UniProtKB/TrEMBL annotation:
Source organism: Ignelater luminosus
Protein name, UniProt field: Ketimine reductase mu-crystallin
Subunit structure: Homodimer. Binds the thyroid hormone triiodothyronine (T3); T3 binding inhibits enzymatic activity.
Domain of life: Eukaryota
Lineage: Eukaryota, Metazoa, Ecdysozoa, Arthropoda, Hexapoda
GO MF entries: hormone binding; pyrroline-2-carboxylate reductase activity; thiomorpholine-carboxylate dehydrogenase activity
Alphabetical list of InterPro entries matching this protein: NAD(P)-bd_dom_sf, ODC_Mu_crystall, ODC_N
Gene3D superfamilies on file: NAD(P)-binding Rossmann-like Domain, ornithine cyclodeaminase, domain 1
EC numbers: 1.5.1.1, 1.5.1.25
Length: 329
């Protein structure tokens, strides 16, 4: 890239960075910083993205999201576009594929020359969990004893890993519609973390949510998962699912909570259902980072309604591109 890049790749060679390489380069602390900077940049007027285009594929439940963005920053600055799909039948194929698959095009911001095509599926997963972690950092400045994760799919798993990395909860509860998958995930995560009962599968959604300090909802379903009366005072919820036909939290939860978003353009385009409940969004997570708005009272229930931002993917693409070049030259 032409901005502040200390590598030797001054030619215009197009680079392809595949899934395997991306996985090798991903790092939680670097991902957190890239996402935090992109959220801050949105609020500070240094990052630009319109609402994403959503292409529906007729006679299926499939979507393709087109997510272009530009971020002006010496370290994470990038011009890029993510193509990310939502293919509900993918996990049920004979050879299962992820529900969400992504690729990112990274362009030179000064010339618009295509610099890299980067496998974007793991980037999407990591940056989504990191966005929830950033929101939790700014909205939940209190004890982190119990984390409740609703959904044991890709997002449920990556949130459990990321949140343990950043916050070190005493108990991480996992609920899933199919209980065996929650049990399997808890066993795997305890093995990977060398723990016995840190990750615990819960059969009932209510038992999982009650008394949790932080809740993550990450399913693809068309049913409400969390009821307001189960939620502890002062708890923080990261509502991760993006599903036009479903909200994972009941209406009472939205009405009783202070609801934050990642970006106004996306919210205006995709979150009208929540607005129709009479809920006013308090602001963007980036507004909390810049100090443009104040953090909520400590006993408020807070919700981060995550949509995912193109500029997070731009910052991540730049990070991975720079790491790739600096470790392969
Ligand atoms: N905000 C953001 O930036 C992003 C959001 N997402 C969103 O995250 C969500 C999860 O994606 P991902 O983890 O990749 O998907 P997966 O297919 O890996 O997991 C899906 C999960 O949803 C559960 N589920 C499906 N149907 C229902 C139902 N009717 N009731 C309850 N649970 C159900 C599945 O349970 P079971 O095991 O029983 O089938 C499984 O736990 C999606 O909504 C996606 O849009 C994804 C990327 C970025
Ligand atoms: O990458 C994102 O942002 C996504 N948001 C909605 C669902 C698919 C991925």
């Amino acid at each position: 890239m032409s901005t502040n890049n200390n590598n030797n790749n001054n030619n215009n060679k197009l680079v392809y960075i595949d899934d395997h390489r991306v996985r090798h380069l991903l790092d939680w602390d670097k991902t957190f910083k890239a996402v935090e900077k992109s959220m801050e940049s949105v609020a500070a007027g240094r990052a630009f993205q319109n609402a994403r285009a959503i292409t529906t594929i007729p006679k299926t439940h499939n979507f393709l999201y087109t997510m272009p963005g530009y971020l002006n920053d010496s370290k994470y600055g990038a011009l890029g576009c993510k193509l990310v799909s939502h293919f509900p039948e993918n996990p049920n194929r004979a050879k299962p594929l992820p529900y969400v698959l992504a690729n990112i095009l990274l362009l030179d911001p000064e010339t618009s020359i295509l610099k890299a095509v980067i496998a974007g599926t793991d980037i999407t997963n990591w940056r989504t969990a990191a966005a929830s972690a950033v929101a939790t950092k700014y909205l939940h400045r209190k004890e982190n004893n119990i984390l409740a994760i609703m959904g044991a799919g890709v997002q449920g798993r990556i949130h459990a890993i990321a949140f343990q990395h950043f916050f070190k909860f005493k108990e991480v509860r996992i609920w899933n519609r199919t209980p065996e998958r929650a049990q399997k995930l808890a066993v795997e995560l305890n093995r990977e973390h060398n723990t016995k009962n840190l990750f615990v599968a819960y059969d009932k959604a209510e038992d999982c949510v009650r008394n949790a300090d932080v809740i993550v909802t990450a399913t693809t379903g068309a049913s409400t998962l969390v009821k307001c009366e189960w939620i502890k005072k002062g708890a923080h919820i990261n509502a991760v699912a993006v599903n036009p036909n479903n909200r994972e939290l009941d209406d009472a939860t939205y009405k009783a909570s202070q609801v934050y978003i990642d970006n106004w353009n996306g919210a205006r385009s995709e979150l009208n259902g929540i607005k129709e409940l009479g809920v006013e969004f308090k602001g963007q997570i980036g507004d909390l980072i810049t100090g443009a708005i104040h953090p909520p009272e400590s006993d408020a229930i807070t919700v981060f309604q995550s949509l995912g931002m193109a500029v997070e993917d731009c910052a991540m693409a730049r990070l991975i591109y720079d790491l790739h070049l600096s470790s392969s030259s």
